[in-house]
Write a structure and sequence with these properties.
The complex is a heterodimer. Chain A is mostly beta strands. Chain A has strands at 13-14, 28-34, 38-46, 51-55, 58-61, 64-65, 79-83, 88-92, 106-109, 113-117. Chain A has a single domain (13-117), classed as Umud Fragment, subunit A. Chain A is built from no helices and 10 strands. The mean pLDDT of chain A is 92. Chain B has helices at residues 2-43, 51-61, 87-95, and strands at 65-73, 78-82, 98-114, 117-130, 135-149, 152-160. By secondary structure, chain B is of the alpha+beta class. In chain B, strands 2-1-6-5-4-3 form a 6-stranded mixed beta sheet, with helices on one face. The radius of gyration of chain B is 21 Å and the shape is elongated. The chains are: A mainly beta, B alpha+beta. The A-B interface holds A 31-38, 40, 42, 79, 91, 104-108, 112 and B 106-107, 109, 121-125, 139-141, 161, 163-166.
């Protein structure tokens, strides 16, 4: 999630954020990667039922380009269109300077989202 | 007087039953955990390990699986039944890429849906040094089903949980 958050940076998670609502586009969310302790911070890019595509580093949702002011480094990523499953969201980190194959992103079940970083 | 003796007796029986339940269930949990600790112990690798030790360790790991067992790794499109005979060559091929390996299992969540069945959700973390000298780290959540066979808890199903699906 660099430059928004640094690897290993200590933060607190607000777990009550999504009790009465679902994550929205551009929210930074904490995703339970494994067990109760390993958490990833990612940004929600597409919601359930939407189609996401990446062309030369530019993200399109339902065919429309989305603005991503938080991405500071351009990328050459390409991802064929795919629909986000029911009860899932599509998340990507802000650090797009790394090769696509090593970046952890994709759709995740909403029930794996444990909250949002407090700051 | 008789009544108070009866109450004390009932209390003793209840406390003993509760204690026995906890001791029994704890020992079951510990036995299941021990299978994962066994895998970690045999998978770990120290610098300069001899090929004979490596082969023996890889062969030992199959002792904690049923034959066959089911393996799922959706991120790699793997959904298949495997034989325990597949384990030693697979383990050896993975281990040969590294000069040192430290594998740990932690954050166990163990449930017993039936008397002789266990469902385990556990975090697996592997830190290793490639033969080229670089360090790598990998963390996964594993979901496993074990069955108690001849007083041994054996893994019948293992899944590497895919959290982010591209």
């Amino acid at each position: 999630m660099e430059p928004t958050y640094q690897n290993g940076q200590i933060n607190f998670c607000f777990k009550l954020r999504y009790i009465f609502s679902n994550p929205k586009r551009h929210d930074v969310v904490a995703i339970r990667l494994a067990g109760k302790k390993i958490v990833l911070l990612k940004r929600v890019i597409a919601l359930a039922g939407e189609t996401i595509e990446i062309r030369n580093g530019i993200v399109f949702v339902n065919g429309s380009k989305i603005e991503e002011p938080y991405v500071s480094s351009p990328s050459d990523w390409n991802l064929a269109p795919r629909k986000v499953d029911k009860a899932h969201v599509y998340v990507i980190g802000d650090n797009r300077s790394v090769p696509m194959r090593v970046h952890q992103f994709g759709q995740t079940a909403i029930n794996r989202i444990i909250g949002v970083p407090l700051w | 007087m008789v009544k108070s003796k009866q109450i004390i007796l009932v209390c003793v029986v209840v406390v003993t039953a509760i204690a026995a339940y906890f001791v029994f269930s704890q020992s079951k949990t510990e036995k299941v955990k021990m299978q994962f600790e066994f895998i970690a112990e045999k998978f770990n690798k120290e610098k300069g390990e001899s090929p004979i030790i490596a082969a023996a360790n890889a062969n030992k790991i199959k002792e904690v699986f049923t034959d066959p067992f089911f393996v799922q790794a959706p991120a790699y499109d793997i959904f298949r039944e495997a034989s325990t005979d597949d384990i030693p060559p697979f383990v050896l091929s993975i281990r040969s890429q590294y000069s040192e390996i430290s594998l740990k299992f932690y954050d166990y969540d163990i449930e017993f849906p039936a008397e002789e069945t266990a469902h385990v959700s556990v975090t697996e973390r592997m830190r290793a040094k490639l033969t080229t000298g670089e360090y790598v780290e990998d963390v996964n959540e594993l979901s496993c089903r074990l069955e108690k066979i001849d007083d041994n808890w054996l893994i019948t199903e293992i899944e590497i949980v895919e959290v982010l699906k591209k």
